[in-house]
Specification:
single chain, Tetracycline Repressor, domain 2, 9 helices, about 0% strand, globular
């Protein structure tokens, strides 16, 4: 479900070789942190996967934390962009249920590398550098806002609180569904949350 989105082609000028290389490193890192976690993601491994030498890292980033911050930002942006795309592809009344069903799908559960960065990395966030947490927090706020805008009572006092609850339930459910080694229990977590957030008989 949470696949990497195609970027809109709005660039006014061709990217330089260095900019393209920088983008490739960030793209690889955004997948790597979701796959292996922040602590399991090394600079050498990222550079190798990007087809580059370790020595070129510091011509693009001041530190490992700077790379992780950009990777967290990229991963979060992909989740927000996909959610917006899903919402825009269906009638307004179907937007939130469609987003929820996509998020709580078995496909998303099985594809952590291209999925939501919050459910993949949330438990590690308190131990990260401030710059990494700041980048992730900004995207989490955007995710909450996307959900809030799909609610019938958007702009009303209770909409933000409902969006908080919805996002927290979605993310928490995905964390638990991935954590257990019992496939049936994993599916049960997803089904229970779907029944509450996007009932098919509604």
């Amino acid at each position: 479900m949470m696949v990497i989105m195609k970027k809109p082609s709005i660039s006014p000028k061709p990217a330089s070789r260095k900019e393209m290389t920088h983008e490739r490193i960030v793209e690889v890192a955004a997948r790597a942190i979701r796959r292996s976690g922040y602590d399991g993601t090394g600079v050498a491994d990222i550079m190798k996967e990007a087809g580059l030498t370790h020595g070129g890292f510091y011509s693009h980033f001041a530190s490992r934390e700077a790379l992780l911050a950009e990777a967290a930002d990229r991963a979060g942006a992909e989740t927000v962009a996909l959610s917006e795309q899903i919402a825009a592809s269906v009638p307004p009344e179907q937007a939130l249920p469609s987003m929820v069903r996509a998020y709580l799908s078995k496909e998303h559960c099985e594809n952590i590398e291209t999925g939501c960065a919050v459910s993949a990395l949330g438990s590690e966030m308190p131990r990260q550098a401030p710059v990494v947490r700041r980048a992730a927090t900004r995207r989490i706020k955007e995710m909450i806002d996307v959900v809030a805008r799909q609610l019938p009572d958007w702009r009303q006092p209770g909409a933000h609180e409902q969006a908080l609850m919805t996002v927290a339930t979605m993310v928490g459910t995905m964390v638990l569904a991935r954590a257990v080694d019992d496939p049936r229990l994993s599916e049960s977590f997803l089904e229970a949350a779907l029944k509450k957030l996007a009932p098919t008989d509604a």
